[in-house]
Design goal:
Shape: elongated
Number of strands: 20
Length: about 375
């Protein structure tokens, strides 16, 4: 009898282990994930701790610039005033309370984003609304999930706020509601919720467009919308070369020569963003601007100063080639040239280079 009981226990343990392994594999095989959260009472922090014990993800906490506020004071007057200001002018950046600078400003490396936020009086906490207003344009084309913490109120208002602020994304599944009565069971709630989500699959390559300027090619990761789908079909017929000009000390832009479908929204464009304007103009940003645009994608891996050099900020008649392959420019060079020396893109050694794009130790460098 004892042997039978031990055998049954072993079988049960094996079954549970395999089930856990399947759940873990489902998430671990997904693309890179970011968990972004705001926590006022520490409940959301505890939720994130439970969440990240079950999945591999980077974590970023949002903090208000003014940490002295007691949002519940005077009958919730302060928190209510913040929410009412947003409701009165939801498209005005000045309506949102200030937050501290965030530690991750470029979301291009992430395919999945999980938002964890408290509920304030049936709405999303104003601090999290600020973050999403500022960074939702970078979430376009990604897979997004939502966890809401509240005392007892339902979360429909928070879900509506999330859908208003975060557009052109794939919602991974239903939002998870964790309240005062089940907060102690949050680990099991999260464990049961994760397998229901539609995580973006891990990819060795993402949909790319290549941008060539001055003989140097940089990849840009495309979002998934009607405009990019039409653009990719157009580029399958061959590379497209356009002439762009600097404008406003934040972009180069010009006429594409053909029109693409528009899905305009108010976008806070950031350095590296590739944007469609009025359906037939392409804008590539080295600074920031807020306007009604259709997002196309983002140039990978260049800082703001590197983008200014690469995009020839301030110049006119900039020849820019868009293509679906990397055969039109230099991406990496290996040679027997002297180590540490700088060479021009045509292979000539340059003494004391001051500004431009050069080859050093077999790699491109921008000075």
């Amino acid at each position: 009898m004892k042997q039978i009981m031990m055998l049954l226990a072993a079988m049960l343990l094996t079954a549970c282990s395999k089930d856990d392994e399947v759940k873990a594999a489902t998430v671990q095989e997904a693309g890179k994930t970011l968990v972004v959260y705001y926590s006022y009472t520490n409940n959301c922090h505890e939720i994130v701790t439970s969440l990240t014990s079950q999945i591999q993800a980077d974590v970023m906490r949002i903090e208000p610039a003014d940490k002295t506020q007691k949002y519940e004071a005077n009958g919730y007057a302060i928190g209510t005033a913040l929410l009412n200001a947003i409701k009165a002018a939801p498209n005005d950046a000045a309506s949102y309370p200030s937050i501290d600078p965030v530690s991750i400003t470029d979301l291009s490396q992430y395919q999945n984003i999980i938002i964890v936020t408290p509920l304030w009086w049936s709405q999303m906490a104003a601090i999290m609304q600020t973050y999403l207003f500022n960074y939702s344009s970078q979430m376009a084309g990604k897979h997004v999930a939502l966890i809401v913490s509240s005392h007892s109120s339902g979360i429909n208002g928070v879900v509506a706020d999330a859908e208003r602020l975060v557009k052109n994304v794939t919602w991974m599944g239903d939002a998870l509601w964790i309240n005062a009565s089940n907060h102690g069971n949050r680990a099991s709630l999260i464990q049961n919720w994760l397998p229901t989500l539609n995580f973006a699959e891990k990819q060795t390559t993402m949909d790319k467009m290549y941008i060539t300027i001055g003989g140097v090619t940089q990849p840009a990761t495309l979002v998934d919308n009607a405009a990019t789908q039409a653009l990719v079909e157009r580029l399958k017929d061959g590379a497209v070369t356009v002439t762009l000009n600097s404008s406003g000390d934040f972009e180069i832009w010009g006429v594409l020569g053909f029109s693409l479908p528009i899905s305009n929204e108010q976008i806070n464009a950031q350095p590296g963003d590739v944007i469609l304007y009025n359906g037939s103009n392409i804008c590539i940003f080295y600074g920031t601007n807020s306007w009604s645009y259709t997002r196309l994608g983002k140039i990978d891996g260049l800082s703001e100063s590197e983008l200014r050099t690469y995009l020839k900020a301030g110049e006119s008649n900039i020849r820019v080639t868009l293509s679906l392959n990397n055969a039109t420019g230099i991406s990496n060079v290996r040679s027997n040239a002297e180590s540490g020396a700088y060479y021009s893109l045509n292979g000539q050694r340059v003494e004391n280079p001051s500004k431009g794009i050069f080859i050093r130790n077999g790699k491109k460098v921008i000075l």
